[in-house]
């Protein structure tokens, strides 16, 4: 149980695929014009990630090492096609607004990276949990970016008016240039937090070392 | 179809609908491989080559194989396989016959398979129902737009290495912000209409 929680923490926070590992930038920048699109993209990717991780983990002993990347791509593109057809059948609006980015899940580096780094070396159950946690981490990052951009760019969230009418929407945030800038500032914030956590850890280590050294000195003097 | 219309299509693919700054196709190599103008140009050349050839190849696969058999829904799987095979083939060909270019492109060549610009141009060609000539011109000019963007950006970044930003902005955030400013410049082209 503890292990599962740790895996979730890894995917959502410590090793967030978008904000920390900086993978999968194309869908992150392109589909975050609104929270709804961001959620749709995140969940579609999560679904593909879980299925492909499970399948690749099951097949990990049968896939020859030399052709593994090609084999992974075939597995992934099969699931992407399935997700694409399902979305066209049940979520047509979302399918329309995400456009080409649904088939482009095939070349999302997060999925290939998890297949290569995790699923090909681990048992099916941990691989599924890894897919779920990494996928949710990706969804979280996308939703955050989508919320900032939609709120500032149109004064809405999930299509509902949030900010008062007096607020003049800054269309810039919905434009491509706004995507680059918003993500830049968001990652800067993450780095700031990580830096301060690291600094604290280092400070603690230095203090501990110093205390230990002083303790030793005292013992030496006693002798 | 006239010569003029093809020219307009190419112009709009290079500048107005630039793959990186208006569509976000191919952002990973754009942000990853743009530290030096030389390597950026190498990457751009390799992508241009692959995208032009894959534009023609996927058009042929779609119109002579998938469409007659009513297998259109398999186009994502088929295209990624064609692109992967093509990149492998080009790698072998260059290794055998043009070793100078092969060593210059180095690791960027196999990475092109997972460059979403290549797959998206193949899918766009089908979506927009281009004929063969238009397909090849579109692939070529979209890749030129990609090369233009990545080379300009590499020039910017090689200047930025001298800068001393706040610690939190070091590395990736600063790169993204610079890309945002460049995207603003490119967005001026979006007003151009024919």
Q: How would you portray this structure in words?
A:
- The complex is a heterodimer of chains A (223) and B (194).
- Chain A has 223 residues and is mostly helical.
- Chain A has one domain.
- Chain A is 73% helix and 2% strand.
- Chain A contains 8 helices and 2 strands; from the N terminus they run αααααααββα.
- Chain A has helices at 2-14, 25-30, 35-58, 68-90, 92-98, 109-119, 124-154, 176-222; strands at 156-157, 160-161.
- Chain A has a two-stranded antiparallel ribbon with strand order 1-2.
- The longest helix of chain A has 47 residues, at 176-222.
- Chain A starts with a helix and ends with a helix.
- Chain B has 194 residues and is mainly alpha-helical.
- Chain B has one domain (9-186).
- Chain B has helices at 3-16, 27-32, 37-66, 75-97, 99-105, 108-111, 116-127, 132-160, 172-187.
- The longest helix of chain B has 30 residues, at 37-66.
- Chain B is globular and about 60 Å long.
- Chain B starts with a helix and ends in a 7-residue tail after the last helix.
- At the A-B interface, helix 2, helix 4 and helix 8 of A face helix 2, helix 4, helix 7 and helix 9 of B.
């Amino acid at each position: 149980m503890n292990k599962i929680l740790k895996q979730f923490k890894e995917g959502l926070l410590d090793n967030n695929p978008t904000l920390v590992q900086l993978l999968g930038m194309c869908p992150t920048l392109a589909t975050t014009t609104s929270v709804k699109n961001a959620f749709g993209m995140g969940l579609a990717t999560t679904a593909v990630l879980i299925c492909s991780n499970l399948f690749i983990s099951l097949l990990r002993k049968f896939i020859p090492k030399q052709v593994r990347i090609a084999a992974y791509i075939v597995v992934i593109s099969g699931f992407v096609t399935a997700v694409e057809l399902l979305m066209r059948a049940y979520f047509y609006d979302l399918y329309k607004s995400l456009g080409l980015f649904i088939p482009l899940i095939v070349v999302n580096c997060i999925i290939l990276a998890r297949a290569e780094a995790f699923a090909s070396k681990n048992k099916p159950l941990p691989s599924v949990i890894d897919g779920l946690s990494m996928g949710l981490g990706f969804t979280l990052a996308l939703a955050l970016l989508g919320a900032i951009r939609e709120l500032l760019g149109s004064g809405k969230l999930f299509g509902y008016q949030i900010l008062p009418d007096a607020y003049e929407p800054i269309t810039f945030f919905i434009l491509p240039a706004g995507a680059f800038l918003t993500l830049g500032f968001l990652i800067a914030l993450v780095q700031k937090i990580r830096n301060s956590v690291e600094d604290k850890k280092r400070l603690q280590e230095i203090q501990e070392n110093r205390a230990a050294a002083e303790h030793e000195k005292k013992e030496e003097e006693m002798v | 179809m006239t010569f003029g219309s093809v020219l307009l299509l190419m112009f709009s693919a290079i500048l107005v609908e630039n793959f990186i700054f208006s569509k976000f196709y191919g952002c990973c190599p754009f942000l990853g491989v743009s530290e030096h103008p030389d390597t950026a140009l190498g990457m751009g050349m390799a992508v241009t080559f692959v995208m032009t050839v894959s534009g023609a190849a996927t058009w042929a696969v779609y119109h002579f194989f998938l469409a007659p058999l009513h297998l259109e829904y398999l186009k994502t799987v088929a295209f990624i396989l064609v692109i992967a095979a093509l990149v492998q083939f080009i790698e072998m060909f260059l290794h055998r016959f043009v070793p100078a270019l092969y060593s210059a492109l180095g690791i960027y060549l196999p990475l092109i398979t997972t460059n979403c610009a290549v797959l998206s141009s193949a899918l766009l060609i089908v979506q927009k129902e281009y004929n063969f000539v238009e397909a090849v011109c579109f692939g070529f000019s979209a890749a030129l737009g990609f090369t233009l963007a990545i080379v300009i950006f590499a020039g910017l970044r090689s200047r930025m290495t001298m800068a001393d930003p706040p610690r939190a902005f070091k590395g990736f955030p600063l790169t993204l912000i610079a890309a945002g400013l460049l995207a603003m410049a490119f967005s001026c082209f979006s007003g151009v209409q024919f």
